[in-house]
Amino acid sequence: TLRFSSSSSSSSASPSPPPPRRLPPPVPLRDLLAHRLPLLHSPAPPPRSSPPVHPHADLLLRRRSGEATPESLHLELVKRGLTHDLFLSNHLVNSYAKSSRLACARQVFDCMLERNAVSWTCLVSGYVLSGITDEAFRVFRAMLGVGSECSRPTSFTFGSVLRACQDAGPDKLGFAVQVHGLVSKTVYASNTTVCNALISMYGNCSVGLPIQAQQVFDSTPVRDIITWNALMSVYAKKGHVVSTFTLFTAMLRDDSAIELRPNEHTFGSLITATTVSSCSSRVLEQVLARVLNSGSSGDLYVGSALVSAFARHGMLDEAKNIFLSLKERNAVTLNGLIVGLVKQHCSEEAVGIFMGTRDSVVVNADTYVVLLGAIAEFSVPEDGLMKGTELHGHVLRTGLIDLKIAISNSLVNMYAKCGAIDKACRVFQLLCTRDRVSWNTIISVLDQNGYCEGAMMKYCMMRQDCISPSNFAAISGLSSCASLRLLSAGQQVHCDAVKWGLDLDTSVSNALVKMYGECGARFECWEVFNSMAEHDVVSWNSIMGVMANLRAPIAESVEVFSKMMRSGLAPNKVTFVNLLATLSPSCVLELGKQVHAVVLKHGAIEDTAVDNALMSCYAKSGDMDSCEQLFSEISGRRDAVSWNSMISGYIYNGHLQEAIDSVWLMMHSDQVMDCCTFSIVLNACASVAALERGMEMHAFGIRSQLESDVVVESALVDMYSKCGKIGYASKVFSSMNQKNEFSWNSMISGYARHGLGRKALEIFEEMQQSGANPDHVTFITVLSACSHAGLVDRGLEYFEMMEDHGILPQIEHYSCVIDLLGRAGKLMKIREYIRRMPMKPNTLIWRTVLVACRQSKDRDKIDMGLEASRMLLELEPQNPVNYVLASNFYAATGRWEDTAKTRAAMGGAGVKKEAGRSWVTLGDGVHTFIAGDRSHPNTKEIYEKLSVLIQKIRNAGYVPMTEFALYDLEEENKEELLNYHSEKLAVAFVLTRSSSGVPIRIMKNLRVCGDCHTAFRYISHAIGRQIILRDAIRFHHFEDGKCSCGDYW
């Protein structure tokens, strides 16, 4: 003040004062500290004389020049008794905090007798700089609780706290909003520094459009270059390239008093915007031109951003040139180049660049993170695993693994992508601390590699650790629930998603649709789909895939596809594959051709998966000509699925020979046959009992080293059991090293089909002891075994056991129980179980009831049989099987008038019953017979042999069972009809060709009648040979006058 007054008086006396200085001359630090230190000499020095040198002033000067550590400064303060000094104590807290010695900083802070805003701010900023945001928030809350005037937060305090909120991310958005509210009540609401911190915070914490950040920017009275850069950075990181460049243009045109020139941070945001968004490389080239004109191309930050951007855009040569032209490079520069190369699938080259520059560039923890990401994308996983193991050893030796948790997370991801799941789990188990990324990584790793149970266990452990799930964890958890068909667990994950707002994410909703669809919850699936705010292509594909799996009506699937087209979204290959899968089971040829036309329109015909789906659709529709034409058109890009679709198409349409020829053609076309091909052909051989062909495929499977595959072995068990070789099936089953549900089910059903019910139940008990979980198919086979063996009580016990295994009985299980009770003649029990059914009886139930009534000797069979026949003809009037069953029932009960009416109604409905036929396979091919057939070239010999055979068994005691001649004829005519049934003609034909002792194998498309069953027992004894008869229901092994079914069939 004295100086200012002196200058004023002299200036009034002088006519020409000197020009004023913009800034006052710098004041020596000693002068600034003099008033805080005790004076050694005179108490009142002259105003213009230099202050005396204070003995403690050198403490801060030495600290400023870097000659002393915080510990030495602390020691000097203690020695000189200055620990009570507020200014020096604040300086000491700040020194410890900046050196990341937070424990020491907190100790000094706690010992201070007096604190002001600077004291609190130094400690808060120290925690923020070290990334300990939760402790920073606690200190800030304690500061607010003091309430003294000198401890009120300053702009620097608010800036540090807001930076902590920014680092914490969206989880701390609520707390950050409270801090903003507190700021608005202070004088710092219009402070530019605080406003800049608010913009950056909202940009990092908010999800979606940065509306709040824009509002803070608009309300900032004075905007400097940092303000503009902060908002540009927010828009750039969120991928809003138009908003970023619009803001940049507005900044250049701003006419405020502050001169705004783009700096390295401005260009960094522009470059980031071109990288994050999907804009063309021309925009990036324009930004590069602007950078070159401004002279900022040599800046390390800008150069690093340019390297990363050009690499991510695939302009690798430009990225390398910029990298090499930089005089100074750091870890960020190298990391950007590596990330860009990985994005362009050049992972091996990225690792090579790291190896070549690691001696000239000081790398950081992030470098190892991106390097592990590059190794994980190696084209040869084995090479990646070797490199990754080497890098793992390096980070362990150097202690880098404890420096940043992201390194450990990247190790888990690297091992998983290289196929070493056990090592990935081991690294995760050894983690001392786990963040959300750690849990996301291990859950998704286990889910994607088929360890769904492990994925769900990790998800539950994450929730127990109070870690909120992210959308990635929710998607992986839902995927695992879908694979395991765990509806209840999926619903719990759904609750988590709703609780944390994750269900608003379209990808999470898509996963929910798939989960509910895979678990069969069709209503919930549609509820989630309809509640979605917006649908993308994946959403529509997911719901169409669910409809295909659940066999939804074609009209509904076509309507969903039409809605997708009307929404403006273009279908992709998954859309067409799911749509065609919906059409295939229903054989709608014209609709399939229309879909084919849409495929051509959208240019998806060049995709092999779509072509395969079209082939399958044409094959299921019976149009093998179109199927063959499409197969020939894709000759240059056929895969295993193409061949399998063609082969299964031939089999579906009854062309077994063409299917076998296709197998041989596939073998000679250098196409590797997979287990699916073998299983398809083996299933075809099983369906027509082509034992020789099946054994040929078995031999070829052994030569192809596929005989140890669980799918192939299970198909072999099924094939041998359906071809009558139950002993071979048992040997294959016993030799299996691994068994799945299909293996167990095939063996159980095989024994049941051959009348070995007790053996089937032994296998079921063995299955349970092995730890394998029975499914709904398992219980169908077990109940069927009990039915064929007459084990009524055990069958009912197994039926009640289903709920213990978490399986709800379906219509097929109730049908087996009704069949079980019907064979035992317990018609009243049948009524009881029909009433227990949670669903309405369908045609399957009524057919079973009708067959049971026909076989039963119970007096109630008439009423129940009449009801069953009436319901069958009402539910399916176009199915000829229903008319045949009703007619046979009426005939068996002597109601010949009703029999005639039923047959007349069948003719009026325009349906035709399938003729009963039997066939045998000999060396010269397959020989087929129908009842009374005289079309065979050897008819004369067959009938002569059959006449001799009938007479022979009559002499042995055989009496024709004329009740099985379901016509109102004289007894002699009925006997003649029974003599010429197709299976008797078949056995007579075999006897005309061969007299050796090998078993006679006969196949029949319908159920064998009681008379033929009795006749075959006598024939087997008369000719001394085993007869194996497979009808539509089961196998009968006739030997020495006995049948394997024990006459209970």
TrEMBL record:
Q: Where is the composition biased (Low complexity)?
A: 1-14
Residue ranges, compositional bias (Pro residues) = 15-28
Stretches forming PPR repeats: 116-150, 224-258, 299-333, 536-571, 639-673, 740-774, 775-809
The UniProt entry's GO biological process terms, in alphabetical order, are: RNA modification
Give all residue intervals belonging to the DYW domain.
Answer: 957-1049
Query: Do you know which InterPro entries this protein is assigned to?
Result: DYW_dom, E2_motif, E_motif, PPR_At4g14850-like_plant, PPR_rpt, TPR-like_helical_dom_sf
The answer to whether keyword Oxidoreductase applies is no
**GO function terms (MF aspect):** RNA binding; zinc ion binding
Q: Which PANTHER family would you find in this protein's record?
A: PENTATRICOPEPTIDE REPEAT-CONTAINING PROTEIN, TETRATRICOPEPTIDE REPEAT-LIKE SUPERFAMILY PROTEIN
Q: Look up keyword Transit peptide and say if it applies.
A: yes
Q: What is this protein called?
A: DYW domain-containing protein
Instruction: Print the keywords alphabetically.
Output: Repeat, Transit peptide
Query: From which lineage does this chain's organism come?
Result: Eukaryota, Viridiplantae, Streptophyta, Embryophyta, Tracheophyta
Q: Look up and give the organism this protein is from.
A: Aegilops tauschii subsp. strangulata (Goatgrass)
